[in-house]
Design brief:
The structure is a single chain. About 35% of the residues lie in helices and about 25% in strands. With about 190 residues, it is an alpha+beta fold. Strand 1 and strand 2 form a beta hairpin. The relative contact order is 0.13.
Length: about 190
């Protein structure tokens, strides 16, 4: 009797295990199929290049007695984090003559996260090594904010330094709260 109970229990356990394995294989097959469909959707054919993404970066232009921001459209490779790629391009500086960089080239992006319309941009301490006065510091901040708020889903930007909130970058412009886009500091056309 004990043998029959043991054999019956083993058969039931085996059947349940087989059923469970069949279910897992079916889920794995569905996942692989969905993955292949996604890969095919984003697959680039042989010899084709992936289309570049255009981003608007904002740099400073000094003209006579005033300074303002102008946009420079740049193409970046498609990226999983285009906001990060845009800020890294901003740090590289302008390619057009007559425009001024906004951040020291040694500046690093520690992280950038976008959630619920807020982009949290964490920069290295080198970002604080600017000496452009109070208006210049404001333009540096607005260059970053305006660059990021061109992306869908980014409504405001909070700037951190080395993971910590800061009051200012260089003693002038208030960074204690998230900032929204500022069109008033932008000139559409710029002179060379």
């Amino acid at each position: 009797m004990l043998t029959i109970a043991f054999v019956s229990g083993a058969v039931v356990a085996l059947l349940l295990s087989v059923f469970w394995l069949v279910q897992l294989r079916q889920e794995l097959y569905q996942t692989r199929t969905a993955l292949k469909e996604l890969q095919a959707e984003y697959q680039v054919g042989e010899g084709e290049e992936r289309p570049m993404t255009k981003v608007a970066l904002y740099f400073i232009q000094d003209e006579q007695d005033e300074s303002f921001l102008v946009s420079e459209v740049r193409e970046i490779p498609p990226a999983s984090a285009p906001e990060l790629a845009a800020i890294e391009e901003l740090i590289k500086g302008p390619s057009a003559q007559g425009l001024q960089p906004v951040l020291p080239p040694q500046t690093k992006v520690n992280r950038i996260e976008v959630e619920n319309g807020l982009a949290v941009l964490d920069l290295s301490a080198e970002a604080m090594k600017i000496s452009r006065g109070s208006w210049g510091e404001a333009l540096v901040v607005w260059a970053m904010v305006n660059t990021l708020t061109k992306f869908p889903g980014v409504e405001a930007v909070q700037i951190l330094i080395e993971g910590n909130p800061v009051e200012t970058l260089a003693g002038h412009f208030d960074l204690s709260r998230p900032l929204r886009r500022n069109e008033q500091v932008i000139r559409d056309e710029w002179t060379r």
